Amino acid sequence: MSHEIQNQYTPDYVSPPGETLQEILEEREMSQTELAERTGRPKKTINEIINAKAAITPETALQLERVLGIPATFWNNRERQYQEALARKEEEERLRLEVTWLDDIPVKAMIKYGWIQYYQDKVEQLREVLNFFAVASPEQWNGIWHSSHVYFRKSQAFESDFGDVAAWLRRGEIEAAKIPCATYDANKFREVLQHIRTLSVELPEIFQPEVVRLCAEVGVAVVFVPQLPKTRTCGATHWLNPDKALIQISLRYKTNDHLWFAFFHEAGHILLHGKRDFFLEGKDVASVEDRDKEQEANKFAEDILVPPAEFKRFLASGKQRSKAGILEFAAQISIAPGIVVGRLQHDGVLQKSHCNDLKQRFEWAFDE
User: Fold this and answer.
1) What is the per-residue burial (b if ≥16 Cβ within 10 Å, else e) of 261-273?
2) Pairing of strands 220-224, 244-249
3) Euclidean distance between the first and final Cα of the chain, in Å?
4) Are 60 and 49 in contact (CB under 8 A)?
5) At a CB cut-off of 8 Å and minimum separation 6, what does 135 contact?
6) I need a surface site. Which of 129, 154, 266, 312 has the fewest CB within 10 A?
7) Strand (E) or helix (H) holding 46
């Protein structure tokens, strides 16, 4: 019997459950007074339920089950769904006043990259963006990213690009959460980096998944996230928890020398600096106390990619200005020749316009 009644009374979740109760009473020719007497509830309570002035409590739901033969779960669900509908309606009205916040977020680019779905309705689009950031409202977003986020407590140099940077960093966190990692082990990470440097001679479809796999085995999540229009950062490093670090690479400069230098620069931060530090590369944002850390990370990347002793011998050989010499040296130290070119250009040995054809250029591939 109860199953038949549940099918008969398919609830309209926007209407109050009291309307359903009133319909049942009319069908059974039962007055509110009689229902009150049979349930033991005050007549005033029954009237307030029917007029949506009072909620159906679990206790009342059990009493209605006894009197009307309709399961308490039906009434409890009806009340829960109604209250949820009321909350959603109130939220809709509140969010409608906050849609202008979307102007500060790179929504079009996020849709293009497939990070979020497109909605024509502004409120629905706002909900989608809030879901992406895992916050309930723009107010909570401001509280987390402006007030609580460790990097933005240190510097406001990215203030004009705040939404783009926050979205890019958040995407990195989302991607990193999908990567199961072992507990971080610094010694094993150092060993892994020596192997990873040799992957620079491989194509992206080979080195990218291999870098992710190898680093995950030693507690470091590596994610490659395309930069947003105003991000202008080539990488970021921070700790997701005491046992899991994150390296995020943007491919800002699109050549292999920059990509690999950025990766090893961030790796240097992980190995050399504290777990409370947050590093976002791309602008001269470091405070005086942090500039030493940036220089240390630079030196780490330079030395692991092109070992100092070998580089000194190479410069002494006089072959550093010929493509043949660069190719020979790169093969000897097992790295891509474009990385050697980048180092020579950085040190002023080669002009910026020389030997760039030895560099590999990368482009992001997006699903249609």
Assistant:
1) bbbbbbbbbbbeb
2) parallel
3) 52
4) yes
5) 141, 144
6) 312
7) helix 43-50
Stated as kind and residue range, the H or E segment containing 152 is helix 150-154
3-state secondary structure at position 204: helix
> Which stretches of 256-304 are assigned E, i.e. beta strand?
279-280
How do residues 236-251 score in pLDDT, each as one tens digit? 999 999 999 999 998 7
The residue behind tokens 């409202």 is 137
Query: What predicted TM-score, i.e. pTM, was given to this entire model?
Result: 0.81
Two tokens at 364? 């992001």
pLDDT score recorded for residue 321: 86
Say which amino acid occupies 152: F
Nearby residues of 199 by Cβ (< 8 Å), 6 or more positions away: 206, 207, 210, 211
What are the chain's domains? 2-96 (1.10.260.40), 100-148 (no CATH), 165-301 (no CATH), 306-368 (no CATH)
Q: Is 233 left (phi over 0), alpha (psi -120 to 50) or beta?
A: beta
Residues paired with 238 in a beta bridge: 246
Q: 291: which strand partners?
A: none
Is the pLDDT at 284 greater than 60? The verdict is no
Task: State what percent of residues in the chain have pLDDT above 70.
Answer: 89
Phi, psi of 276 (to 5 degrees): -90, -10
Token representation of residue 287: 């405070």
Q: What is the pLDDT of residue 274?
A: 85
pLDDT tens digit sequence for 29-85: 999 999 999 999 999 999 999 999 999 999 999 999 999 999 999 999 999 999 999
